[in-house]
Design a protein that fits this description.
Distance between the termini: 41 Å
Number of domains: 1
Strand order of the largest sheet: 1-9-10-6-5-2-3-4
CATH topology: Rossmann fold
CATH superfamily: Vaccinia Virus protein VP39
Strand content: 15-25%
Number of strands: 10
Shape: globular
Radius of gyration: 18 Å
Number of helices: 6
CATH architecture: 3-Layer(aba) Sandwich
Helix content: 25-40%
């Protein structure tokens, strides 16, 4: 990891987002970030959340660790990162991404756990949550790991994401924030508003909605094939996601 030059450890000309539409044409490749892990979010998202909703030495939790994007940012921004993932393969990828010597005193802690059962974390112990769960079974991240949300159809996923929301509500401190990125999908030619349904599960768990952000997608695999399909079968290609920011009152 030492081949990275000093000026590459943070984004160039970074500015904090100030509106409810976020659009990052440059996906972000500073530090050890890359887009190789399918479905991972742009590092601009956790960077914005961390800077706006936490301060140095705060505890930041990512309950869907994936390839470690959020924890790379917690380490760079001097936060105490905690990462959780049900998939050991994801954890191995994240550990490799985090093997750099910038701010080694802020080395994150990683657990192989189910986000529905964060028993290692006490009540009211986390300052910020940055979550990017799978979008039901649109992308399957493991080979049949029991409890993996990416193996579930939409009905089961929504049932189980409620238990995730309850657990996140439990560990978050009062008056602190939880950001979650989620997108919609289609079935039989019709839109399934997965984003809004997940938002409702978090509201049902006790959270209050502070911000509803539209995140524009770039560099999607919208080939000419899918563009022709869109016209021939009369549907629009989905190029946005929702970033919901909740508060625990």
């Amino acid at each position: 990891m030492e081949q990275y030059r000093a000026f590459e450890w943070e984004p160039k000309d970074f500015k904090l987002e100030t509106t409810t539409i976020w659009s990052f044409k440059d996906r972000g490749k500073w530090a050890t970030h890359s887009g190789e892990y399918r479905g991972n979010w742009s590092p601009y998202i956790p960077r914005n959340l961390i800077i706006r909703y936490s301060k140095e030495d705060d505890i930041v939790l990512d309950p869907f660790l994936g390839s470690g994007t959020t924890l790379i940012e917690t380490k760079l921004l001097k936060r105490k990162g905690i990462g959780v993932d049900i998939n050991p393969e994801a954890i191995n990828i994240a550990r490799k991404k985090l093997a750099f010597n910038i701010n080694p005193e802020y080395e994150p802690i990683i657990y192989n756990l189910d986000a529905r059962n964060l028993h290692i974390l006490p009540d009211n112990s986390v300052d910020l949550i940055c979550a990017h769960p799978p979008y039901a079974n649109i992308i399957k991240y493991s080979k049949g790991i029991k409890g993996d949300l990416s193996q579930m159809d939409i009905a089961e996923f929504l049932q189980e994401i409620f238990f995730v929301a309850k657990e996140l509500f439990r560990v978050l401190k009062k008056n602190k924030y939880c950001g979650i990125l989620i997108g919609d999908t289609r079935k039989n030619g019709h839109m399934i508003p997965l984003g809004f349904r997940v938002m409702q599960k978090f509201l049902d768990a006790g959270f209050i909605l502070k911000e509803s952000i539209i995140k524009e997608q770039h560099n999607c695999r919208t080939t000419e094939f899918w563009q022709r399909k869109s016209i021939n079968y009369n549907f629009l290609l989905i190029v946005h996601e929702y970033l919901f920011v909740f508060r625990k009152s």
